[in-house]
Amino acid sequence: MSTAFPYGLIATDLDGTLLRSDDTISVRTREALAAATAAGAAHIVVTGRAVPWTRHILDDLGYEGLAVCGQGAQVYHAGEHRLLTSVTLDRQLAGVALAKIEAEVGPLFLAASRDGLDGEVLVGPGYAVTGKLPSTPFSDASDLWSAPLNKIYIQHPELSDDELAQAASEAAGGFVTVAMAGAGIVELLPLGLSKATGLSIAARRLGLKAADTIAFGDMPNDIPMFAWAAHSVAMANAHKDLKAVADESTTSNDNDGIAEVLERLLNTTD
Predict the structure, then answer these.
(1) If phi over 0 gives left and psi between -120 and 50 gives alpha, with beta otherwise, what is residue 86?
(2) What is the reported pLDDT for 269?
(3) How far apart are CA 106 and CA 131, in angstroms?
(4) Which residue pairs, CB below 8 angstroms and at least 24 apart, start in 49-54?
(5) Residue 139: which pLDDT band, with cuts at 50, 70 and 90?
(6) Is 50 exceeded by the pLDDT of residue 85?
(7) Among 3, 154, 161, 176, which is least packed, fewest CB within 10 Å?
(8) Rounded to an integer, what distance in angstroms lies between the CA atom of residue 49 and that of residue 76?
(9) Where would I find the H helices in 122-246?
(10) 223 Cβ partners below 8 Å, 6+ apart?
(11) For residue 141, how many other CB atoms are within 10 A of its CB?
(12) Hey, is 42 helix, strand or coil?
């Protein structure tokens, strides 16, 4: 692909990466992305959030391209407000996985993301939702399994996120993929699913591939995407496990880390 920008594809995580702590995107970062796309690159948002928790951000950004949502489960066309692909969690396997995890660590607090453009996030007793994202409380466990799901969220009253993710992987890694996406966000996903699988599908639709891609992220759930992309950039605020596998680090999400890298690449391009 011929482009004035050294990469044909810019893949950015949302929380802790493209979004600042106040859930906004700076003018500088918007302008850097606009300049890179004007120079020939495509931008794909790659987030753990399902479409209903992502759509308003994309609309505010004026973003009309493809987005990979739900930790790779959904490829969403923002301009057309249309879900192109969706992978759901096998609810029977998920039930087995939960039982195995709870057998090791004790009772969990649960939430779940229902499939679809308007899928609700169901939140059970004790589960703490980060931020002000919309959710629907449930008290009867049968509600959790009554419709197709993209993922289940788990929290533990005592274990840290790292400890819970490790325990869940050891207990149920043969049934589900376990991802840690942020503070208080440990997820159970369809086995084998990752941001990399969703991003590869979206990239292929644009005629692009891993060798064309620069990726930005901040949490361990970005590790598969970093492994897939040609070049990976961890934010200054990133988890230590992601920094360990990144090709480089930049400044934090609150200090225009994405813009710093894009501006440098634009300035070194003839």
Answers:
(1) beta
(2) 52
(3) 26
(4) 49/14, 49/15, 50/74, 50/113, 50/119, 50/121, 50/150, 50/151, 51/76, 51/83, 51/116, 51/117, 51/119, 52/117, 52/118, 52/119, 52/120, 52/121, 52/134, 53/121, 53/133, 53/134, 54/14
(5) confident
(6) yes
(7) 3
(8) 12
(9) 161-172, 195-205, 223-228, 240-243
(10) 241, 242, 245
(11) 11
(12) strand
For residue 1, pLDDT beyond 50? no
Lowest mean pLDDT among 5-19, 84-98, 222-236, 256-270: 256-270
**Which amino acid makes up residue 87?**
V
Distance (Å, whole) CA 266 – CA 270: 8
Q: How far apart are CA 46 and CA 193, in angstroms?
A: 13
Instruction: Give the whole-angstrom CA distance, residue 222 versus residue 202.
Output: 16
Q: In what order do the strands lie in the sheet with 121-123?
A: 136-137, 121-123, 109-114, 149-155, 185-190, 176-182
